[in-house]
Design goal:
- By secondary structure, this protein is an alpha/beta fold.
- The chain has two domains: 12-256 and 467-479, 3-Layer(aba) Sandwich (Rossmann fold), CATH 3.40.50.2000; 280-460, Glycogen Phosphorylase B (Rossmann fold, 3-Layer(aba) Sandwich).
- The protein is built from 20 helices and 18 strands.
- It has helices at 29-43, 63-66, 104-107, 118-131, 133-136, 151-158, 185-190, 208-215, 224-229, 233-236, 240-245, 280-293, 315-328, 341-353, 366-375, 391-397, 408-413, 432-446, 449-460, 467-479; strands at residues 12-17, 49-56, 70-79, 82-93, 96-102, 142-146, 167-172, 180-181, 201-202, 205-207, 218-221, 250-252, 302-306, 332-336, 358-361, 378-381, 401-405, 425-427.
- The strands form three sheets. It has a nine-stranded mixed sheet, sandwiched between helices.
- The longest helix is centred in the N-terminal third of the chain and has 15 residues, at 29-43.
- The chain is globular.
Length: 480
């Protein structure tokens, strides 16, 4: 008896390459994205895509993950004129297959980036992204590379490995960091055929991000507004001409957040659970935070910040206005973050000037961050530039009303509350006076408890999951 013919369609195979992936290792938003987006794409009902993830096996990857990994094999791969060992480990977690590229010389270090040989390290990793198929058996239809550290995966796919016919997607998470090096790295670290070197040359340097933008099949950013901003010199850090010439293949897709890790109803770090329907727990979280930090128990509004202490995050305009606010208003202010020494010193001294109102936590601690999201009333995120931003979405998830400057993903995710619609407060002019004014508006609403609770309940019901973005990524992959 003849077998029935089947029309089962093969899934599009996507290899998502990232220098950081949470919870295995990360320094910021890219790690959060890489740890969430592929999972959501794979979870989509009827998904025609299988997305797997590849990252370096850093020395900091925890033993709890290492003991669950399976060693698949190893080989020598080229890094310019030399050969290097590449081992591949596999881990399956939450419906995603993760591959880890092992080379202790490059990755067993006390950090992810910031080393003098980063160009060589990530040239190796970019070759490994493509060469890994010989060990994993996963031959990708599409390689999705992220930021400058994986930009060469796109360049290599379209030059050295062009016979494989791999389609490529390149996502810019932060255009400020482009992978710029002297031209000596062309021979020492990269090793293209000389006729292809021009793809990487820009303003007299080698620019890895420029090469990926030029050669990729689709070019994405992490919010629609950021995509528009990148076409202007003020935002693109010298790449605006390259970006404008490739705008026909660019799309801005607003990131989501991991709504399982950030869930006030099931968060192990916070003092009490709560929701839009049962709001009492949020007050308990505020009291617990005040007690933990040694602040007076008070119903005064608590302003919060969780940020890197660097100029693009707007900490300078917070510094312009915060003393005056504290002197003239009954508010509390809690800040968590590290960064430039001058800002760290400012916030330490701010606490010394206002010991009963301020706690400046010059550190980063995940548990403390969750407690601040849950305990705070108003969340300050007055960034000068912000490609997407996740903290403003997380703040909404915990009913911590965000105040943002209208830039990048902040403009796409936070909209002015009008009593019925919206999810926060916004301003545009980048200065302390404007920030002070909009904080005053939020404090005025806070004094009307019924109106304030209505806003808090509204933002607790906001949907910042990956569901919407996953649909767009899925469609893009299918089109490729």
């Amino acid at each position: 008896m003849a077998k029935k013919a089947t029309n089962k369609k093969m899934k599009t195979k996507v290899l998502f390459a990232s220098p950081e992936v949470m919870p295995f290792g990360g320094t910021g938003g890219l790690g959060e994205v890489a740890g969430s987006m592929p999972r959501e794409v794979n979870r989509m009902r009827g998904s025609g895509v299988e997305c797997r993830v590849i990252m370096p096996l850093y020395g900091s990857v925890k033993e709890e993950f290492r003991k669950k990994m399976k060693f698949l094999g190893s080989k020598q791969i080229p890094v310019a004129w030399r050969g290097q060992y590449m081992g591949i480990f596999e881990l399956k977690k939450d419906g995603v297959v993760y591959y880890f590229v092992d080379n202790e010389y490059y990755f067993k270090r006390g950090g992810l980036y910031g080393f003098g040989d980063d160009c060589e390290r990530f040239s190796f990793f970019s070759r490994a992204v493509i060469e890994s198929a010989d060990i994993t058996g996963f031959e990708p239809d599409i390689i999705h590379a992220n930021d400058w550290q994986t930009a060469l995966a796109v360049v290599f796919a379209k030059t050295i490995y062009k016979s494989k016919g791999i389609k490529t997607v390149f996502t810019v998470h932060n255009v400020e960091y482009q992978g710029r090096y002297g031209t000596e790295v062309l021979h020492d670290c990269i090793g293209l055929d000389g006729k292809d070197n021009h793809f990487l040359l820009h303003d007299g340097d080698v620019n890895l991000m420029k090469g990926a933008i030029e050669l990729c099949d689709r070019f994405t950013t992490v919010s629609p507004t950021y995509a528009r901003e990148l076409t202007y010199p003020v935002s693109a850090f010298g790449l605006d001409g390259v970006i404008r010439s490739n705008a026909h293949k660019m799309i801005g897709i607003l990131n989501g957040i991991d709504t399982v890790s950030y869930d006030p109803q099931n968060d192990p770090f916070v003092a009490a659970s709560y929701s839009a329907e049962k709001l009492q727990g949020k007050k308990k979280c505020k009291r617990a935070l005040q007690n933990d930090l040694g602040l007076p128990e008070s119903d005064a509004p608590m302003l919060t910040m969780i940020t890197r202490l660097v100029a693009p995050k707007g900490v300078d305009i917070v510094a312009e206005m915060i003393d005056n606010l504290l002197y003239h208003s009954e508010v509390q202010f809690v800040m968590l973050g590290t960064g430039d020494r001058k800002y760290e010193d400012f916030f330490r001294q701010l606490q010394e000037r206002h010991p009963d109102q301020v706690r400046s936590l010059i550190e980063f601690n995940t548990a403390t961050a969750h407690k601040i999201y849950a305990g705070g009333d108003i969340f300050l995120m007055p960034s000068r530039s912000e490609a997407c931003g996740l903290a403003q979405m997380i703040a909404c998830r915990y009913g911590n009303v965000p105040i943002v400057r209208l830039t990048g993903g902040l403009a796409d995710s936070i909209h002015e509350w009008d009593g019925e619609e919206g999810n926060g407060y916004t301003f545009y002019d980048f200065n302390g006076t404007e920030l002070s004014y909009v904080v005053g508006r939020a404090l005025d609403l806070y004094s009307h408890k019924i109106k304030w609770r209505r806003l808090v309940r509204h933002i607790l019901d906001e949907d910042f999951s990956w569901a919407k973005a996953a649909i767009v990524y899925h469609r893009m992959y299918a089109e490729l």
